[in-house]
Give the backbone structure.
Amino acid sequence: MHEYINNRGYRTLINVAVLSGIGDGLYNIVFVIYASTLPFKTLAVSLASMATLIPSLLSMVTGYFADQARSKTKSMIFARLIQFGLFLGLAVAIKLPASLPLFLLLLMINIVSDTCGSFGNGLALPLLRRLLPTSELNGAMGFMTAATTTVQVIFQGIGASLIVLLNHNYALFGVINALTFLSAALLIIQRQSTLLQVESVAKHAHAPEDGSIFHSLKQTLSFLRTNRFLLTVIILTFFINLFGASISGLINVTLLAYKGLWLGNYGNSVAVMNISISAGMIVGSLWTNDWFKKIRLMMLFVWCLSFSILAGLGFIWHQTPWLIIVALLGMGYLLGKVNPRISAIVLHSVPEHRLAAVNGLLTMVSMLGAPIGQVVFLGVANVVDVSWSWLGFTIGCGLIVLFIIFGTSQMKEPALIDD
């Protein structure tokens, strides 16, 4: 919070991330609602849900282009203006009679916009590194995580309610969404001189490398081979996301099977358990000066996975929802510690001219685990029984804990102190 109040450049990038998060949060849920009204709603909802993964899977590519951009600030403005234009086009197109080709066009607009957003986020990384003292990276990235998570949770709920109040006027919603991206662009323009000054320092220190995307990937992998800690973190995030991404779906299926876990009704129970994770993440990201501040990242993974195991055991036992809620809150709280710490270590350890590519690779690899885990665990829940899914989930998390304890005990974590 101290950096947000006193550091104008950092405050600008946070506000831009929040405005973009509002735009993403608003329309992602509204687009799923729109898809549910179409004659081919099952296909449409499935495609709309899966489309949110595509920008993450392309993050290595967008990271490469972000690293190659000669002017990060002007490229950020350009990216947000493209998003503004795309949603104005969507607002016009969505008024046409519903058809599969039209839906695919709207879906493509949404994907391209989210990809532009990912590109813009990559552009901000070297500026964040220059704007923040190393000792403040963890707290500053925690605040950014809390801010973006909060607006996405809140505005998804607002979007679902507002579209009803607007009598399902999807075109008007497209215009509202476009204005959030225009506001982000105008905010960057307003503080352009500050960001350009920081960028000029970064340019003198590290000029972008020339070369193809394949050359960039090769260089990125070569860098990671020399940094065993970051490589291990990337591999762990893949497996942790493989298990973690299935939690929401497993909660939904489990509550259908066991009414004893309900808090009043099914809808309230799903909402409370899912919100518990988000609420824990927000609190964990904001409360940076707790006991976990001095715990190394690998042990934070262990604590987070331990709460995941407790949640899995709670669902297997399926006698009380309160044990599960406490476990989910604890898991979310630790995730709120883990994600900013990883971001801070990446910002500190990776050369500036490769920041977006490495961060993109981290995002892409971790997201690859999500669909695999969902297929496996939700498949078992539907074909066999949801208790077997939770058993596999719990055992899997336990095996990762054992690997971290016995396989990474001698691994040195980069120190986040000022040079």
About this structure: The chain is about 80% helix and 0% strand.
